[in-house]
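Human: You know discrete backbone vocabularies at least as well as I do. Show me how you would write down a chain together with its backbone fold. No explanation is needed for now; the record alone will do.

Assistant:
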Amino acid sequence: MDMAIATAIPIGMTTRDAADAMMLLGRQRPLFVVILAITLALAAAVLSVQKAVVQVFASTAPALALRLSPHDAKATRRQFDLDVLANGTGLPRDPVGAARAARAAIAHEPLDAGVARMLAMSESPTRQTAIAPLMHVAERISRRDLLNQLWLVEDAVTRGDIGGALVHYDRALSVHPEAGAQLFPILTAAIAQPDIRQALVPYLRADRPWAISFLVHAAQHADDPTRVAQTYLQYGGDRAAAKHRALGPLILSRLVALRHYPAAYAFARRLTPNPAALTRAGLSRATFDQRFAPFVWTIDPGVDADITYAPDQGVAIELDSAKRVVALTRDMMLAAGRWRFAQGVDYSTLAGRPLLSWTATCLGADDRRIWSYDTNQLDRHHDVPPVLTVPAGCGPVRLELSVGSGPADDARVTIRDVSLERM
């Protein structure tokens, strides 16, 4: 037997008894280890569950989360934000307590930008010089905190730093698209200023994640949509970002809806690859390109008739008996003076005497009809040369073609072409 072991055997215990005792101890040691491991695992599981519960309630019930974990950064920040919103002043009701809570949260989670921003807002009532450095520290930790970015926007605006303000607008909206509900109205009002429109160009041209949503909001809600049109043209619209193709027609429709006719027409001429088409009355692919309505021929999709346009064939119109519909509509910018009107018409039959009625209305503060002309199948294969006189001061002239069928006969007619020539 080893001498060291032998000398450790108590007096009165035989070597065999000592060996049995050591074997028993060897069997029991793994059991101690298992019990310890189970205890540690249970403790870890409890802590994990507690942390999960804290994370679940940190946003929805921060006060409850803070009872379980008094220094949780997310819960501390959320409770602070709710307190600021409830106070209605943009500041916490208890700045000293809020600052103490922020410091405790920072001690546990020093890389949480929200509690750094919280500390800055808590310090602001008593230490104005401290807030800006703390806000910039918070941003260096993370650019994802919305209120931090909003404070930095306001700070940049206060200092007259347009570029800096847009940097923080971009960061806020890129991470928090829901902030558009708050920020888009501000940006929409701001584009009335030329320097802000120009500063926005790089962001819109780069098609930042919020660009389309902002332009849609601006097109639909701007008090003066001409500024939105100017912004679109400045950054290049769909020529700069292909995904922006639908925005031009949206802006154009708002200009027309608010009756900014000269601006709408000028905008449409900038949008179309074929500006000359907007000055010609003829029927062609370009004069039926619906992106530039109402300055092209349009067919009401809800009309109770079968009306189709085919290139090089014209507009085919079919309607049941005893009906009258508006088949074609178009707004044109016509100079004051006399214009010779002509049309090419093909009738499928002499029966029924379908009636074609053309009208022209001067659009403005008081829309007024300035011309009308009725024709029927007796004019087939002949151009009819009536004269349209546009008075001075007239805005766009709305041309409208109505087609009526007889009481017992269907109407089938094809408008091969239309022309207006200055006399």
Notes: The two ends are 132 Å apart (CA to CA). The first strand starts at residue 306 and ends at 310. Residues 1-10, 377-383 have pLDDT under 50 and may be disordered. Strands lie at 306-310, 314-319, 324-332, 337-347, 355-362, 368-375, 387-390, 397-404, 411-422.
